[in-house]
């Protein structure tokens, strides 16, 4: 079979589990997570490739690939269905020497050397499948060739506080990398890797083979390949990226990045025609607003039926919002159902989730009656259950004393019970969360209804999940 020689092909690492996104990625790969009302995370690197004239893309999948594979199809949504290249889904497979999962980012490329060699590329672009940004890679490739670099890493400047989350490098006046550390505890600079690399293919292939022979290697670009190239005096350069970029690795960052597309002058402009973001088109009917429906500063996808209210929110395709329901500061994923008089505030609602009539999900500050006794069952870690009754004002010192290791008041609190808890108690409980990051303790009311109190300020309802009553995070 004949394959066309390419100057540069792209390989997208799309096999991540995305465990920090919790129930949102329980049955789907992280790159397939919805974003921005009509997109999925994988749309951004694919669209960037299309906008950069890179027409041959390998997509390396591993964890829960079914939904991602279905979404990718033949690549036509991104104009990547050419017989001269196109997209290719590359999953681990059995070989004569055995069957192996991808053991790291570098190993996943190593296992697909035969695919890359088909196109005999001069350069290879390595991308993550779950970052949100818009760019033309041809500018980075031009920089790479001008510097005659063996490897070019796209970088951004981050705060000192954030630096330990990234691969951090030190460069000279010519942007040549002189030192690199992967997620250092005490970073020496704030120049951070974006996980976007361009390599000379022959050089990278040599180092991938060396790495595969090292039994002590973690087979990772940041931990192994890049440090080894520096140690052996290869030419590595940093390409400065100027623009919006987010690693959507947590619930909070996913929520915040969706909020960043709102407003007249959004931080992430999805309406820039010069760098369009393409997505799979499932031909939904137009969105319909009924009766007293109200929409304010929100992005609404296709195929929605809205009878309630939405403000400062991103509503994805196929969502139904019933009469009296209120959505505020939230990201609602595709085909979710928000029942009558339900309230969703500061929350991420997963695909196909159902919020039943009258339920509350999100951040709420309850009104509390003075001196009302509330029976509370506190489960201490490594201790037997103990039941105590507290008087709201006079006994607040006792509850503060007994909740020093509380992290979570687990899910679904009844609204009437919430209204009977003292504000002072709530304040003490919230303050004590910070001292209990590693504890897993639940406080349950005697009625069996539970109140979700977590350190993060964004409530989450997982994919295909149903909320019958309340899921509340106290402020």
Explain what the structure shows.
With 475 residues, the chain is α/β, with parallel strands linked by helices. Helix content is 19%, strand content 27%. It starts with 7 loop residues before the first strand and ends with a strand.
Indicate the low-confidence ranges by residue numbers.
367-455
Largest sheet composition: 9 strands, mixed
Number of distinct helices: 11
Q: Give the radius of gyration.
A: 25 Å
**Shape assignment:** globular
User: What amount of the residues lies in strands?
Assistant: 25-35%
Question: How many strands in all?
Answer: 35
Give helix % range. Answer: 10-25%
What average pLDDT do the residues reach? 82
- Cα distance, first to last residue? 62 Å
Structural class based on helices, strands and sheet pairing: alpha/beta
Question: Which SSEs are present, and which pair or pack?
Answer:
Blueprint: E1 8-13, E2 34-35, E3 39-40, H1 43-51, E4 56-60, H2 66-72, E5 86-90, E6 94-95, E7 98-99, H3 105-110, H4 113-118, E8 123-128, E9 131-133, H5 137-146, E10 151-157, E11 167-171, E12 177-182, E13 191-200, H6 201-212, H7 221-231, E14 236-240, E15 245-247, H8 251-259, E16 288-289, E17 294-296, E18 299-300, E19 305-306, E20 309-311, E21 314-315, E22 320-321, E23 326-328, E24 331-332, E25 337-338, E26 343-345, E27 347-349, E28 354-355, E29 360-363, E30 374-378, E31 386-390, H9 396-401, H10 415-418, H11 423-433, E32 443-445, E33 459-461, E34 466-467, E35 470-473
